[in-house]
Amino acid sequence: MTSVIELAMSGGGQLFIAAEPMQALLDTYWMGHTWSTTGFYVSLLIFPILAPFIVTFKELPWEKDTQKHNLFEIDVNNKENVLNMKAALHINHYGEQPNYTILQRYKLFFSTSVVKCFYSFIFFVAFLILFSHTYLRKIGPSISIEEIVTASWAGVMVIEEIRQIISSGSCRLLRRSQFLWQEDIWNLFDYSALVFFFCGFGLRWYPGNMIWCRLLYSGSLVMFYSRLFQYYLISEGLGSKVLMILQMIGRDLTFFVAIAFIYTTAFGVVLQGLLDPEQRDVGAIIGGVYYKSYWTIFGELFLGDYSKVADRQCTQQDLEIGRVCEQYHVLPILATGVYLIVSNAILLNLLIAMFSHTFDDVYNNSHTIWRNSRVTLVKEYSTRPILPPPLSLFIYLFRIIVFISCCFAGQRDKPCRRGMICTEIIKSKKMEESTKAIELRANEIYHLKKQTNSNNSYNEQMKELNNKYDVIIKKLADIKK
To answer: Torsions phi, psi of 207, nearest 5?
Structure first.
């Protein structure tokens, strides 16, 4: 992705990214040389081999100088030409197909971002099916073939994550990782899932760790399944709902847990001390503190434990040996009643109110929020290899061979050094200049529209003040009469 869009993302320019010229540019990156038609998506699913001969191709705006002049010589002072920016990006129509060779058709089709995203989704679902099958049926005393295949597939995913970190453009590895986490939350899902998986797979080689292995595999499987939500961002309707859920979990639920933790701990300590004062095991005490207090929020009151305490009476022998006996009193019931008022009546309703506010906020700005989140999706798949994991391993091996051959040949230029890992297409100077010109012109149009709206708002305010002034003058004249 080019510098102007990245600058707008880092500077919080959501309205600029959501503008029509920027979205038209993203559409160009997303669809590449192909048109978005019904036959295009049908060919993706049913005829992947024949798809390059079925879909309709087009030339991009930066491929012809004549198109470049038509595109960038737009009078931004003319309000009628503001909407021409989006139309200018879609220059060729369906009937004006360029003459590409068979090899060029295959290359242009399978290097398109939407095609890479589609087949990446298919292979990722296949990986989840294999991982789920392995988790449910093939985890035994010895490591199965399915488990080794799953680990190999996940290893190729690790290589892809390393490639994204190295090709992110930052100077240091840790800074690159932090940049990717902040830019795209889905990378955090990827890292967590892969770390959990390989920690669990490493424990498989040490007997007696089956429980911990299954626990880590479970966390990895949940993270991988959650990763599917990224593909919902392609649709504005589903994508806005996913972003809404992420904000509810990341912001509202976090605040709720931070507040509820204090009340939960206080109630749990009081109840544990009243119901089981003889307990000395630290693990059992911590479990008792948070087990009852947590489930009480959802209606499990454990009233049967209070009656059991009432049935236990101290004997004379217990008193002689100094045993601490449970004494039944009304304090646990009173503490539970107060806790229910705070947790159910106040905290849960506070959480519902926060969710409602987040829903309204995202719903009212869903168009802008979705368009901004779409940038990271387009950027990721515009730089990915043509083949999805695990087939992308062949591309990595090819690039390693090219890198080694370049080093032995003494060609240590920048493309040779980056050829091993970076999958971003090295654009020509004409393409870079044209793309930057598109963005600069879009920037001018955006600020022009913003200034026009501001002037209109100012004129409306002045008109309203004049009307009020006329009303006041009229009333004063009536009073004098």
So the answer is: -60, 150
Q: Is the peptide bond before 390 cis (omega within 30 degrees of 0)?
A: yes
Note the pLDDT tens digit of each residue in 15-54: 777 877 777 778 878 887 776 665 666 667 677 777 777 7
Q: DSSP letters of 161-179?
A: HHHHHHTT--SSHHHHHHH
* 3-state SS assignment for residue 37: coil
* Burial (Cβ within 10 Å: 0-12, 13-18, ≥19) of residue 354: middle
Which residue in 225, 476, 256 sits closest to 346, CA to CA? 256
Amino acid at 120: S
380's tokens = 């990721």
Q: Rounded to whole angstroms, how far apart are CA atoms 307 and 296? A: 17
Q: Taking phi first (over 0 means left), then psi (-120 to 50 degrees means alpha), and beta for anything else, what does residue 32 get?
A: left
C-alpha 320/C-alpha 124 separation (Å) is: 68
Each residue of 291-313: pLDDT tens digit? Answer: 888 888 888 887 777 665 544 55
Rounded Cα distance between 192 and 150, Å, is 16
H-assigned helices in 83-144: 84-89, 102-110, 113-137
- pLDDT category at 469 given cuts 50, 70, 90 is low
Closest Cα to residue 291, out of 267, 325, 312, 255? 267
Q: What is the pTM of this model?
A: 0.73
Q: Which amino acid belongs to residue 314?
A: C
> What DSSP line would sit under 351-366, residue for residue?
HHHHHHHHHHHHHHTH
Tell how far CA 177 is from the center of its chain.
Answer: 15
At residue 390, φ and ψ (nearest 5 deg) are -90, 0
Six-digit token pair at 159? 């290589």
Using an 8 Å Cβ cutoff, are 43 and 55 in contact? yes
Q: Give the amino acid at 331.
A: L
Please work out, in degrees rounded to the nearest 5, the angle formed at the alpha carbon of residue 189 by the alpha carbons of 291 and 387.
150
Residue with tokens 């004997």: 315
Q: How far is residue 407's CA from residue 203's CA, in Å, rounded to a whole number?
A: 39
Rounded to 5 degrees, what are φ and ψ at 57? -100, 160
